Every structure is written in structure tokens, then in C-alpha cells.
Amino acid sequence: MQLAGHGASVEEFGGIERIFDPNILTLGFARRFASYKRPNLLLHDPDRLRAILMNEKRPVQLILAGKAHPQDALGQEMIRQWIEFIRHTPARSRAAFLSDYDMHLTEHLVQGVDLWLNTPRRPWEACGTSGMKVLVNGGLNLSELDGWWAEAYSPDVGWALGDGLEHGDDPAWDAVEAGRLYKLLEEEVIPEFYDRDEAGIPLRWINRMRESMARLTPAFSANRSVREYTEKHYIPLAAAYLQRSSNGNRAAIDLLKWAQQVRRFWPKLRFGSLRVETEGDWCTFDVQVYLDELDRDAIHVELYAESVDGGEPVRQVMVRGESLIGAENAYHYSAAVPAGRSPGDFTPRIIPYHPGAFVPLESPQILWYR
Questions:
Q1: Pair type for strands 314-317 and 299-305
Q2: pTM exceeding the 0.85 threshold for the entire prediction
Q3: Angle between helices 46-54 and 171-184 (to 10 degrees)
Q4: Ranges under pLDDT 50 in the chain
Q5: Which domains does the chain have, with CATH numbers?
Q6: Using an 8 Å Cβ cutoff, are 224 and 218 in contact?
Q7: Which string of b and e fits 82-93 if b means at least 16 CB within 10 Å?
């Protein structure tokens, strides 16, 4: 039906039975056709792509699917280019573009491909994509280091494009990445798939599949997402509601008074001087804080530093000390941190605090030391 709709010739109908072989490496690309997703990156050098698909010793087959917005002329043109490439070259025996892309079609694609391709321009990729659905089906990913793949990728679970930086829509960079995509396929992906033992088993490929399924499926799945939302958000919120609504809503009333007090006096908070001393393995910070009429227990003073090497940021609550001489409701706040990082990495800040509140959701104020 699809070939007929495109006006295929009798000869093209005659070759249908020769399309796709379950023993050949199968690549899949299926998503909305939009320019930022670069669905034609693989088509950058048609001759090189044709050589990859038609290699006699290590052939490759490609399944594409997708739709463009009715008003996206560029997206529609990219689909047309793929259809023209498939119909008018010998690659038609190794490639197919499937129309009427929807969730039902995707369900079959993610079960049938060996490798899922994704080639967006960083940083436009969504955090969750079709590549996640391939995991549980044993498929591997070759994707731009963007979205979820920037977090999930390691060399033993798949392949990656890009340098983790943003290059806009520079055609020169697109050409560079197209070259890297072809090279990855030619020198790593395809050889690994066809590297077989005496029993015809691609051991390295299967090891990579196992790593991908074992490590990524539990982390990047709807089950994990729903469980995490339930445990970290829904259950605590339900418990908070019960606690706040008990005893005549006493806790809720107390929270409301706290939030009103914070909003009223927050503009009057200010820092005084900051003293930093390094002795041995420790660096000590002492900062003066003026609270005006705000209850001193309604805030926390933190020593903050950005994360390094993908870790968590430092958020150390500073200890309230002596009152400042000659000032009312003003105090020294101090904290000590290991001297391994530069003192300039750390900044005192004031944030609202209440043991029963969700901060910053219910009180987003923040005051940084300047």
C-alpha cells in the first residue's frame, strides 16, 4: 500500500520479498521530523551511506519512520529526501521509510532493531526519548550526547556522538558530526555486530546488550519514574496534608504565619562583613547577618558551593554564634569546610526554613552574600 501510494513501479513491487533479513544489522530511526533533530544527518553523504548499506560482507539495513508538522515545510522536505534516496538507488533493498508513524508502529520498531539512532542538535533534545524504550528490548543506542543519553552513556553500553558542547545550527559542525557518525558505524558498530565466534554468536555485542539492559533499564524506565515520584513526592505530600490538617489545622496556620513573616521582613535582611581563615586542613567562614525583625529560627544561613565532577553541591548549614555588639537581632554565623577547594568557591546565603515547609516550593526567597 505504501509503495503504491508513492507511485512505485512494477519492478519495485517485485523486490519487496528481498527487503530485510533478520540476520543483518538493523538500524532504526523514528521520530518527528524537525530540523533540530537532524533526521537527515545520516544522509549527509549519500554515497558513503549507500556503501555502508550495500557492503557485501557486512551489510546493514535501515528502517526509518516519522512525521513532520503540516506547516513544517523543511521537515516534509527531509522526508521527501529520504524517500527519494530509498527509491532511486540500489539501497532500496536495504532501507525503508514507514508512513503513518504512531505509537503502535514504534512498539514494533523498538522490538525489531539492533541499534537505535538519535542525532539532535544539543541542547534541544528532550530528557526522555524513544531510545529509552529500546533498552528493555535488547537494542543498543547510538545517540548525541544530549538529553537522557548525556546522563546514561558510557562506552560499554552504547555509542555517542558529539563533544558535549553546543554548536548551534552550524552546517560545518553538522558535516563534522556526520563524518563521525559514518566512522562510528564503519569502524566500531558494524565490525562488533559481525564479530562472531565459532557458533556464530556476536559475543562483544551481546555483552554490550547485557550491560545496557542491566544498568540502564532499571534507571530509565516508567517503573522507576513512577516509583520515584510516589516515594519522593506523592507520599510525603500526602503525609504533610494529614499532618497540617490535624488538630484544627494548627500546623497549616503556623506555616501560613511563618510564610507571611518571611515575605514581610525578607527585604530588610542583609549581610555584614565576611571573614575567611585557613588553618591546616580546614577553612573557616564567619559572616555577619542582620535579621531586622525576622525570627532567627525562620531562616537558615548556608555555606554554598557548586558541584564538581558531577557530584552534589555543598550546602552546609552555618552555626549561629554570638550576637553582634551594638546591633539588635544580628549574629555571627560560622562554618568550617575542608581546605581542598578554593575559599572563593564558597558563598554564604540565607534561605527560609521551617521544619514542616517544602522549600523552595512554598517559600522561594534566597539572599546571597555580595
A1: antiparallel
A2: no
A3: 10
A4: 1-4, 10, 13-14, 16
A5: 2-220 (3.40.50.2000), 265-368 (2.60.40)
A6: yes
A7: bbebbbebebbb
